[in-house]
Amino acid sequence: xxxFDTTFLIVLLEDKALSITDREDKPVTKxxxxxxxxxxxxxxxxxxxxxxxxxxxxFMVRAGKAGPELLKRLTNTSKFSLSPFxxxxxxxxxxxxxxxxxxxxxxxxxxxAKVKFDVQIVAIxxxxxxxxxxxxxxxxxxxxxxxGIDIRRICDLALPQEEEEEATLFSRLNETSNGESxxxx
Length: 185
Hints:
Blueprint: E1 2-4, H1 6-13, H2 31-44, E2 49-52, H3 53-63, H4 67-75, E3 80-83, H5 87-103, H6 112-127, E4 132-134, H7 138-147, E5 150-152, H8 160-184
Parallel strand pairs: 1-2, 1-4, 2-3, 4-5
Helix pairs in contact: 1-3, 3-4, 5-6, 6-7
């Protein structure tokens, strides 16, 4: 199981253009194509996409009047699982907040409301046994590293044709090496 943050849900479910940048603050191209290709690959591997309820709340605020219809799309498929902030997640969150406070001793911390929201998302992912969180938030990356969950951003996702080109190149390399070895025999 993997987790989608709000940005990934927005890109997947809305057609609005978003300005997404990579870790070096350079624009990421073909954002929708990357996320939709990821979802196709996840679907093919029967992976479940966990949507933590704090992510759902952020998404519903942004969706406005379209929210109920978009929520229906999420809940009418077995590929998505809405995951609440329960007891296991609360325990994970407490441990993560203690770790953050220990690391930040004496230093100002970004607004605690945001920290706690991000921590809830990571804690739900940990409690649900998720291996990857797809998120654009650099703070989420730091929180994920603290608990051993891999964080991937849109800039990390392959484009559909890139994978096809790599597969074609790989098969050509295999054909070439097989042909050379047969020719040498």
